[in-house]
Amino acid sequence: MATSDPAGLRLARSSATVADDIVRQIEHRIVAGSFTPGDRLPAERRLAADLGVSRTALREALGRLEVAGLVVRRHGSGTRVARAVPLGASLAARLENAGDDFDHSAEFRELVEPQLARLAAERITAAELTELRALLAASSADVDAEESLRLDVAFHTAIARASRNPLLASLGELTANWTVEARAFSHLAGDGRRVSHAGHVRILAGLEAADPDAVASAMATHLREIRAVIDRVRDIDQSA
């Protein structure tokens, strides 16, 4: 399997340790799908250079990712993304210190996505409605957290594309990538997946009725409900 493309991998620094930031960035790329199951990461020397970090910090981060079950390290064959990425374990471990990120993510979505949905209601095609119905039908089944998250992202990015504005469609796709870690918490438990599905049902109904106000309102309500689900998961984890 080809080595993952490291383009754009330069580490974004925060107030955390370098190893913390490395873990965060690689974890995000795994959950978002930039690094897919089975992919081989670049060799340590190259990966450290791409990130702009020391190999010591990189090795610490890779060790922590291995313990979390996200990567597999074998002498002679390098580091690969695990075949089965444990979504719950990979994300829940960072709940305690991630409050600001989740709040920023929710605020960003609540500003952007209702307006994308409003435009989509005016411009969506019959083929795009069919695609959304298929995604909604698939998510109504008893799917696991990973599949539920994938269908959720696909549903929202399809709405962004239906805006018929390539710049806004790109923003919608970026929104999905930027917020994938936060939105994943709404899929860890069955009740969260049910809330997500019910919100999508209301959004699709507004799109089918070609009612921009109804769709924007349904999207705003959906995002508030998802934010509440994420907050409940965070509260439970922090009180455990």
Offer a quick outline of the entry.
The protein is mostly helical and 240 residues long.
CATH class of the largest domain: Mainly Alpha
Strand content: under 5%
Helix content: 55-70%
Our Rg estimate from Cα atoms comes to 19 Å
List the helices and strands and how they pair.
Blueprint: H1 18-32, H2 44-51, H3 55-67, E1 71-74, E2 78-81, H4 87-92, H5 99-123, H6 126-139, H7 145-161, H8 166-178, H9 180-184, H10 190-208, H11 212-239
Antiparallel strand pairs: 1-2
Helix pairs in contact: 1-3, 5-7, 5-8, 5-10, 5-11, 6-7, 6-10, 7-8, 7-10, 10-11
Tell me about this structure.
The protein has helices at 18-32, 44-51, 55-67, 87-92, 99-123, 126-139, 145-161, 166-178, 180-184, 190-208, 212-239, and strands at residues 71-74, 78-81. It has 240 residues and is mainly alpha-helical. The chain folds into two domains: 18-85, Arc Repressor Mutant, subunit A; 95-239, GntR ligand-binding domain-like (Four Helix Bundle (Hemerythrin (Met), subunit A)), CATH 1.20.120. The chain has a two-stranded antiparallel ribbon. It starts with 17 loop residues before the first helix and ends with a helix.
